[in-house]
Amino acid sequence: MNANGIITLTTDFGLQDMFVGVMKGVMLGIAPDARLVDITHDLPNQSVDAADFVLAHSASYFPPGTTHMVVVDPGVGTARRMIAVACNGQFFVAPDNGALSSVLREADCPVIHEITNANYFTPSPVGNTFHGRDVFAPIAAHLAAGVAIEELGPRVDDPVLRPELSPDVSPGRLVGRITYIDKFGNAMTNITRADISTAFARAKCTATAGPQTSRLVSTYTDGAPGTELIALINSWGLIEFAVNQGHAAQFADLTVGQEVMLGSSDK
Q1: For the chain, what is the largest distance between any 2 Cα atoms, rounded to a whole number of angstroms?
Q2: Over the stretch 109-156, which tens digit does the pLDDT of each residue have?
Q3: Domains and CATH numbers, the chain
Q4: How far apart are CA 137 and CA 71, in angstroms?
Q5: Edge-to-edge strands of the sheet including 6-11?
Q6: Contact, 59 vs 27, CB < 8 A?
């Protein structure tokens, strides 16, 4: 597999500080022709699950040979592993903390290497608080510039995987969880379009999050502006709770990990 020079960045650093800019400077010093793409730097602090979700719903939209760098690293400076992965026609660089769980589960024969070869780190001493600068950014840049993944360190056969939370699917009933809340307050779940077809066939259904039962609608504008919690199948094929021109998470006190249910409706 040949790298194409594109490097994506997914972090929880935000843009207030110098962290993202410094990582980009390191990358461009190694691979001056690299094309850097920000997926997001606004993940919730230390949320490995959010990193996993975002990358799982982003990586496939990039061309073959793209290098994806993820830095959401609560264990920075500890003995936790750092890994580079080649799978699905792309490269991934991340701490081995489960941030690549969904990518690895969907991969066909992933090649995984621990990152140990200090020849590809920054030349200055590696600190204990900013491996994004000292390790992940230079490794991503070297991969994007054509360095073979085998050069980075030994093979890994046991990457850390987060628990896979599949919905409970039965005829006329679905129980899932909120997995991600976006900037607009829309609460995405792990319930898919296919799950709904399995559980309900031709029957109509309603969705419940906490004490509120919602209509399953087609678009945001089907809900009363600002005053009604609705559910719909979003563009990722997932059940999502939303408020038309409002913030569903605040409106209904929704949180990541909260249980939600879809049930049959007679209406």
Answers
A1: 67
A2: 899 999 999 999 999 889 999 999 999 999 999 999 999 999 999 999
A3: 6-152 (3.40.50.10790), 168-265 (2.40.30.90)
A4: 9
A5: 35-40, 6-11, 67-71, 90-95, 82-87, 111-114
A6: no
